[in-house]
Design a protein that fits this description.
By secondary structure, the chain is of the alpha+beta class. 44% of the residues lie in helices and 17% in strands. The longest helix has 30 residues. Pfam families: Thioredoxin_8.
Length: 468
């Protein structure tokens, strides 16, 4: 689906040099001078962080009109990112680009629009990002299909995306370097789904599909260089490598549960250490492996063995500290303990004390507007469970949205089968409850203590956990 951008009125910033009179103003091409500025509606903070390779280059503070502007005397062409907590996005600069952006934090990605020299390629990068996100949100049921139907579905989606990319490439005069990023967005989205399918299918249906895959199913791996320096700081690339390692290990595992065992997570670290030469990518990937492993194995003895190898491979101490902090927070969620207190509100705007409203065995599940397919299917799943388990209490918690967005989504989708609560502080719930996957579900005992804080509504064995 092609993104249709609203018309954006030219930003008028009083401190811009007088020769910057139009978004299409052509600047004198001297050295690598570049300009970056914009306006943020409903800002969450008073600054924007500008980064390259995950390292902060500069911080731009918003003025009284929520605008910022900066001139770079020299800016190396390439992929950058900007962050306005808690959101971030990419921006690509060619030589002498002059980019202005406008966005509304209420709908960060969908509202983001660039104008100025270099705007067309950056607007296309956002168009492609939104297209891929929409595509992934439609994959919920597709992963349960048989191989032939799955391949037919994703190939059809790939062909549409590739056609969109080729049309934009023919129209926009972008560089070979930018084309590397744009083309990889198309290819990695397709390859990611192919790697996810075998274990997602087994997770959802309980049936292994790996021996039924066509002989050429993994041919895409030959075309993806895991040490491509042009992509090392592009998140779709790192996500693909992480899911690739999961799938490689799953190929030798007897079932999906074995894939998350200590032994197989040790294998993931070893494979990552062997295959990935770029230290930055290796650190990001092994960090992802560690965070995923911690959510599935809370055995202290196993964790010790895992981290002995992890610490030898990881060279990024900051990432390692974050992983160890996550490990500590996870251990606070052990069975029979009580959940750390977080801020929650009901639909009337009243603060809710979770410990006071739990009277029966309770299922907590999470959703966000940004993953609409999961939001809808999780509530449908609860409809099925409520019919089978009328004595169980179901509590739905929205994260990552504004209060207005949450209320609008409840009304639009008619979500009314659970007690609907809202978490206004994503950082708080992410750290205290370690909610870094929207698919996480928690089961609580009638006294509010934890029965199991690390399950999923869509696990084929979920009801076995529910009955314990």
């Amino acid at each position: 689906m092609q993104k249709k951008y609203p018309y954006i009125i030219l930003l008028t910033l009083s401190f811009i040099a007088t020769n910057l009179i139009s978004c299409k103003q052509v600047f004198e091409e001297q050295n690598y001078v570049a300009y970056f500025g914009g306006e943020i509606e409903n800002p969450k903070t008073n600054f924007v962080v500008f980064m390259k390779d995950d390292k902060v280059i500069d911080t731009f503070f918003l003025d009284k009109n929520n605008r910022f502007f900066h001139k770079f005397d020299s800016l190396t062409p390439g992929l950058y990112s900007f962050k306005h907590d808690p959101e971030y996005q990419y921006v690509y600069f060619e030589k002498n680009d002059s980019l202005m952006l406008r966005l509304n934090t209420v709908d960060f990605d969908n509202s983001l629009m660039f104008c100025g020299r270099g705007d067309e390629k950056n607007n296309f990068l956002m168009e492609l990002y939104l297209h891929n996100e929409n595509d992934r949100n439609k994959m919920y049921d597709v992963y349960t299909k048989d191989v032939a139907e799955f391949v037919k579905n994703i190939d059809s989606s790939y062909n549409k995306t590739k056609s969109l990319y080729l049309k934009r490439k023919a129209f926009i005069n972008w560089s070979d370097e930018f084309d590397k990023i744009a083309a990889s967005s198309v290819e990695l989205n397709h390859a990611y789904k192919k790697e996810v399918y075998p274990f997602a299918h087994e997770f959802r249906t309980g049936k292994s599909i790996k021996n039924k895959l066509p002989v050429n199913y993994y041919n895409h791996r030959k075309a993806i260089n895991l040490n491509d320096t042009a992509l090392v700081n592009y998140s779709p690339f790192v996500k693909y490598i992480t899911v690739l390692l999961n799938n490689i290990v799953l190929s030798d595992a007897k079932n999906i549960a074995d894939e998350m065992s200590l032994e197989n997570n040790i294998k993931k670290l070893q494979i990552a250490d062997t295959l990935i030469k770029n230290l930055h990518v290796k650190n990001l990937v092994v960090n992802n492996i560690a965070n995923m492993y911690l959510l599935t194995d809370q055995c202290t003895e196993n964790n010790t063995k895992f981290f002995q190898l992890y610490s030898k491979i990881s060279t990024d101490k900051k990432l390692e500290e974050e992983v160890m902090k996550t490990s500590k927070n996870i251990h606070n969620l052990h069975n029979h303990s009580h959940l750390p207190v977080i801020t929650l509100y009901d639909t009337n705007g009243n603060k809710v004390d979770l410990n006071k409203i739990i009277k029966n065995k309770t299922v907590l599940y999470f959703w966000t507007k940004q993953s609409e397919s999961h939001a809808v299917h999780s509530h449908k799943k609860v409809d099925e469970l409520k019919a089978k388990y009328p004595d169980i209490q179901f509590i739905s918690i929205n994260i990552g949205n504004t209060n207005t967005e949450w209320l609008n989504e409840l009304k639009k989708n008619n979500f009314n089968n659970s007690l609907e609560l809202y978490s206004p502080n994503f950082k708080e719930i992410k750290e205290k409850w370690v909610i870094n996957k929207i698919h996480r579900t928690m089961i609580l005992n009638a006294d509010g203590s934890i029965n199991n804080a690390f399950v999923s509504l869509f696990d084929i064995n979920f009801e076995n956990q529910l009955n314990k």
